[in-house]
Amino acid sequence: MTTPTMRAIRLHEHGGPDVLRYEQVPLPQPGPGEVLVRVHAVGVNPPDWYLRDGMSNLPENVRPKFSLPVIPGTDLSGVIEAVAADVDDFRVGDEVFGLLRFPGFDGSTYAQYVAAPASDLARKPAGIDHIHAAGAPMAGLTAWQFLIDLGHDHPSPFQAAQHRPVPLGAHTTVLINGAAGGVGHFALQLAKWKGARVIAVASGAHEAFLRELGADEFVDYTKHRPEELAHDLDLVLDAVGGPHSSRFLRTLKRGGSHFPVFFGAFDEQETTKLGVTVTGTQVRSNSAQLAELARLLDTGTVRVAIDSTYTLADAQAAHTRAAQGHIRGKIVLTVP
Fold first, then answer.
1. What local confidence, expressed as pLDDT, does residue 66 receive?
2. Which of these, 149, 84, 148, lies nearest to 121 by C-alpha position?
3. d(CA 255, CA 232)
4. Taking residues 178-193, what's their average pLDDT?
5. What's the CATH code of the domain at 178?
6. Which domain holds residue 272?
7. Position 156 in a domain
8. Which of 171, 292, 306, 318 has the fewest CB atoms within 10 Å, i.e. is most exposed?
9. Considering its fold, how many domains does the chain have in total?
10. 59 and 89 both lie in a single domain
């Protein structure tokens, strides 16, 4: 009997975008608690190229385990084709979207079909298409778990203490660095939804876009150093993060908080002296939070900006685009 197959992107080795191979692979079968999703679109995220590169940017002690060959990808939007007997929440024909099995690296969404845990999915917002829905899960949930509600009690691999979002409202001023990117543009909109005053930092080409999303102030980092212009902030969400993130500490008022999305090195004595908190978390799959985000997407309160789209077969080109940086919103793969 012939084994059913599908098309997917697989990695057999680590390297640049050229190691992404478009191949014929076995069709997955849903196990207990899973559904089979016919994928319509796939969100492209930083962990996809971390996996492609072999996790070289992460300390060895926090690198997740995986073996080659592997199908990358965590975000999807699609239609359910089959449902395991123990799944009651979904039916064949339901349109769904989700962040699969994260923080693991076995989401396997760069494919025509995915066996997805039903617990990682939510119903796709009816008011947006699959391309926009696929761009939402990881970036949207990252912003949500940093700013609105952590939603879990799992420790972060980057810090001992559990992350705690700070209350946002009309009394809070938030600076978002990297505001035009995937996480950044969601964070801006969620902070505005909560009533905060938002300062957006990005290159000048994104000013009109970010003001349209609700930014109260804009700083072009190619012309000004935001850490020299901003002061008395309640919160900095640094969607870029990394080794230079500590430059924002002195923009905070005493009692303020700094949230680097990609954790960097911070001097504990400096943060204590300044009276500020530095904290972060690692995004995790969460269907309940995704359903809340879906309601905001459906009403247009929050929207997904699409930088560019590529077909699944052109995943190499999508990763090349990602490496160029200056991304506005999300890169998405379409699955014909």
1. 79
2. 84
3. 10
4. 98
5. 3.40.50.720
6. 164-278
7. no
8. 171
9. 2
10. yes
